[in-house]
UniProtKB/TrEMBL annotation:
Record lineage: Bacteria, Bacillati, Actinomycetota, Actinomycetes, Micromonosporales
Record has Transmembrane as a keyword: yes
Segments traversing the membrane: 6-24, 36-56, 76-94, 106-125, 152-174, 195-214, 220-241
Native source species: Micromonospora chokoriensis
InterPro entries the record matches: DUF6545, MAB_1171c-like
Domain DUF6545: 263-408
Any one Pfam family match given in the protein's UniProt record, by short name: DUF6545
Protein name per UniProt: DUF6545 domain-containing protein
Keywords: Membrane, Transmembrane, Transmembrane helix
Coiled coil ranges: none
């Protein structure tokens, strides 16, 4: 396990060099790009940090300072974490407030590095450590004399505390930016940064466990060493890919692949609603519905066209069902959805699903068109009741109809439709007062 983890670390180091040089080329073309400058700093810092680690023994011997490579590597890791925060902050804004936030993080980094350097200098005064380099039993156990042990522990805790806080900030910032990002690859990259940062937090946790279990046994030392290296390497790899995939992804066709996969997903999300409408109104289908393996392959091959077609056919079904739509069913569905605890768009989607489901049931039963059709609200309702069908662009329309398709498949929708249609039927059969 240890050899695999260290092999992964070597591979990640090579990838780091490739990605760093790739982004430096972009920076040479756009030197005033603040997010790109921060990203390049993060990549260069972590690349040098990982490159130094296998060369630690020779560098320490060359400089004549035991463990100096560890100090340099740890400090560069903190620089990377700070630059990553700056990258995410500058991606959303470059105003005075953002620059102030970046400045505060830079000051915190400088203070942490200063503490680490002071504690490192103190540990050098302990002459009892014959080999103070990065072996887990000594690296986490530290010096043998109490004053130096305290300094060594302060060094580690300062490093891990700042790194843990920084990674937590990266998770928050990446998630916040992913929620508003429109480019699929950018959104995917930010999600990868989030997952990579969580692996980084696992690295911090593993290091803390290693400190607690220091000098317990050689087996525990080997296990914690492997976990630390594995978590650190995985974290760097995921963050590295996530931060650079928006730029190199389109060049290898990932954007087209992603768009095709999204179209296939949308088609199958809309399919339940289309199936219900097609069962009652088969004339909406421009072509026979695909089936079997060949059908699945044709959907994958022409996913974008299939998505457009199924959306148009659903809306054609809406238009055909208009005379059977009832305002009273919509009101009943609204009350039932509210009683069921649905709010906002979920409630609106449930109302639309109930109106469509009731109209389909009425049409299937041969019920005459409703006298309330003129009073019924126009469908689709959209993400808010203030949005008419014409206000929705194609992407929003697909997203909304997929939400309706999910609602119409729910047990709550079945209950609302059954109750609404039965009550409507009972009202229609009651003798009128003379």
């Amino acid at each position: 396990m240890v050899s695999i983890a260290h092999g992964l670390m070597t591979a990640v180091t090579l990838v780091c060099w490739g990605m760093s040089l790739y982004k430096l080329r972009d920076l040479a073309r756009d030197r005033d790009n603040r997010p790109l400058r921060a990203l390049c700093l993060a990549l260069i810092a972590i690349t040098i940090s990982m490159t130094l680690q296998p060369l630690a023994a020779k560098i320490d011997e060359l400089l004549g300072i035991p463990d100096i490579t560890r100090l340099l590597s740890n400090c560069l890791s903190l620089v990377c974490a700070t630059a990553a925060q700056a990258f995410l902050l500058f991606m959303t804004s470059a105003d005075v407030s953002t620059r102030r936030r970046v400045r505060r993080r830079t000051i915190a980094l400088a203070l942490t590095v200063a503490v680490m350097i002071m504690m490192f200098v103190v540990t050098l005064l302990d002459g009892s450590r014959s080999d103070p380099r990065v072996r887990v039993t000594e690296y986490d156990g530290g010096p043998s004399h109490p004053p130096f042990q305290f300094a060594y522990l302060a060094y580690l805790l300062a490093y891990l505390a700042y790194l843990g806080w920084s990674l937590t900030q990266v998770v928050v910032l990446a998630n916040r930016y992913a929620a508003i990002a429109h480019r699929p690859l950018l959104r995917f990259g930010l999600r990868m940064i989030t997952v990579g940062s969580l692996w980084g937090l696992a690295y911090v946790a593993a290091r803390l466990v290693a400190i607690v279990l220091a000098n317990r046994s050689s087996d525990w030392a080997l296990i914690t060493d492997a976990v630390v290296v594995l978590a650190f390497s995985t974290s760097i790899l995921l963050v590295l890919i996530g931060s650079t995939i928006p730029s190199w992804g389109p060049r290898v066709g990932l954007d087209r692949l992603w768009a095709g996969a999204a179209a296939v997903r949308d088609y199958y999300r809309l399919y339940p609603l289309w199936t219900r409408i097609h069962a009652v109104l088969p004339e909406i289908a421009l072509l026979p519905p695909p089936s079997g393996v060949r059908g699945a392959l044709s959907i994958a091959r022409d996913a974008s066209l299939r998505r457009v077609r199924i959306t148009v056919e659903i809306l054609d079904g809406y238009a055909t069902l208009r005379p059977w739509m009832s305002a009273s069913v919509a009101a009943h569905a609204h009350d039932a959805a509210q009683e069921g605890g649905l709010l906002g768009d979920q409630q609106t989607a449930m109302v639309e699903a109930a109106v469509i489901g009731a109209a389909l049931a009425s049409r299937l039963d041969g019920t005459p068109p409703s006298g309330e059709a003129a009073e019924a609200v126009a469908l689709p309702l959209g993400p808010s009741r203030d949005s008419a069908a014409g206000d929705l662009d194609a992407a929003d329309q697909v997203t909304w109809l997929a939400q309706v398709a999910r609602a119409i498949e729910s047990p709550m929708a079945a209950q609302i439709i059954t109750r609404a249609t039965s009550e409507t039927s009972s009202l229609d059969t009651q003798p009128s007062e003379r």
